[in-house]
Amino acid sequence: MSVTDNLRKLAFSARKLRLNVPSDALVLEVGSGDSPCPRSDVLFELTLDSFERAGGKTIVDRPLVLGNVEKLPFPDKSFGYVIAFHVLEHMARPELFLSELQRVASAGYLETPSFWSERVNPLTMHRLEVGVEPYDGRQRLVIQRKRRPDPDPELTTQFRRGLVPGMGFDRLHPHAWVTRYWWKDQIDYRVVNPEEIIEWPELSELAPSEGRDPRTIVRRVLKSAALCARRSTPVSLSALLRCTDCGADPLLEEHGSLKCPRCERVYPVIDGIPHMYPKAERKAAAASRGSQP
After folding, report:
1. Burial class (CB in 10 A: 0-12, 13-18, 19+), 207
2. Which residues of 162-186 are buried (b: 16+ CB within 10 A; e: fewer)?
3. Where are the domains of the chain?
4. Strand 128-135 relative to strand 138-145, pairing
5. What are the pLDDT digits (tens) for 77-100?
6. φ, ψ of residue 52 in degrees (nearest 5)
7. Neighbours of 254 (CB within 10 A)
8. Which of 19, 129, 145, 192 is the most buried (most CB within 10 A)?
């Protein structure tokens, strides 16, 4: 691989450091995991554990909320920008996820594995294949629900046989491996097979990672740089949150928890982290984190 190819890959790996976000925007990052974007002001995750994650447990270095991305606990348009790195491809119901992003923010950035790379080298934890296409003078997402969680063994074998020096795959531009999508006001998308229903195991049934970070040394250095470069913005989480059951806001701070003034639902705050799961999921989420519901 040439020096130019290596520099190109290095520049691409540093994209979180160079993400162009309005300087005055309050930024939410969903699915922040173990490598949040430095520009994010508020982080949102399903769990503190490392389910469906490459490198380890959730980073807690700024305000963090736990909950379900299909029912975000924030009022309408409470953020100027929302970031979602490699989250959409995990969604069994992409319409709900995309609708919530548009509801809580005015603009944002989405990134997933590219459609073709997911097809030839898939991960069983990914439920969707995601690409982009021209649409009405701009770009829109193209989403296809996977028909089964297991990859095509022959297709995968043939692809990996091509990943040898001289065959060209290792010289592809890094952008070829991911789908990148910027949006403002609305997310344009179409689902290729809306009739397909995904009924694979829930996250709690999937094996968590063992905490090993598969990143190269250079990418680990960039990850550390991103964490050091994060913006420190004073944020009052209680003022930003709303009830996931009835939608009321603001919530009341009461005895180390948050209480809905309308339906009186109480949300625990553990180690400064609000646990904002919808009521139906509260018991399952508590069981996965080893605490009381």
Report:
1. exposed
2. eeeeeeebeeeeeeeebbebebeee
3. 3-233, 236-293
4. antiparallel
5. 999 999 999 999 999 999 999 999
6. 50, 40
7. 10
8. 129
